[in-house]
Every structure is written in C-alpha cells, then in structure tokens.
Amino acid sequence: RDRQGAINPPAGIVVTVVKAPRSGGCPARIRAGQTFAFADTVPAGFCVHACASVIDVVLSLRTVGEQGGVQADAITMTCQQPECGAVFQVTPARSGGSLGVGRRR
Predict the structure, then answer these.
(1) How far apart are CA 20 and CA 34, in angstroms?
(2) Nearest Cα to 87, choosing from 39, 11, 22, 43?
(3) Which residues, 6+ apart, have CB-to-CB distance to 34 below 8 Å?
C-alpha cells in the first residue's frame, strides 16, 4: 500500500536472456536478447526450466517493488537445467515503457 493506503499495482519484472542456451539445451528455444515481462502471470514462451531458475528472484523483486522498497539492481541467474547454460538478468521494470513478451532488443 502507498502512503494514502491505496494498494500498489504489482511491480513488473523483466527477465533478459543475456547468454543463449547451448544448442539443443532449451526446449522453449529461447535466444540471447529476448526479454520477458513478468507481472501477474508468467510470460508466454518462457521455458519452464528457466522459470524455475528465476521465479524466487522475480517474486522477491515484485514484493520489494509493491512495498515501495529500495530500488534493486539487476540480478544474474543461470538456468538450473544442466544441458542449457542460459544466463538471465532479472531487473525491476522501469516506468515509462513496456516490453513485449519474448521481444528481442
């Protein structure tokens, strides 16, 4: 809630693929440069293994954002599926624009 008692909207979180998975390592075939915007749902096209790897950080950053907490920096995570090797950067969404699901930068 904000200072007036209104409920803050869910904080958006952006997950960017900063290192591509190994060839054949990702069942969702994600690629370096793709961005996935998390809000109230998991974005379409985001690999279930990648989601399992980043979901705790996504939820923590959302909670901090909803409570008006300290602005968090980017957090780097690696996919937990051994065959994958993809690396993700998890950041709070900045106001002033939106990212498309699975959009390439």
Answers:
(1) 9
(2) 22
(3) 16, 17, 102, 103, 104
- Domain extent listing, the chain: 13-95
CB 61 within 8 A of CB 3: no
What whole-number distance in Å separates Cα of residue 41 and Cα of residue 29?
A: 20
10 pLDDT band, cuts 50/70/90, is low
> What's the angle, vertex CA 8, arms to CA 47 and CA 70, rounded to 5?
75
Global pTM? Answer: 0.76
Among candidates 63, 95, 85, 61, which has minimal Cα distance to 75?
61
H or E, element range at 31: none
For residue 82 the two structure tokens come to: 């051994």
Task: Give the separation between CA 70 and CA 16, rounded to whole angstroms.
Answer: 21
How confident is the model over 21-62, as pLDDT tens digits? Answer: 999 999 999 999 999 999 888 999 999 999 999 999 999 888
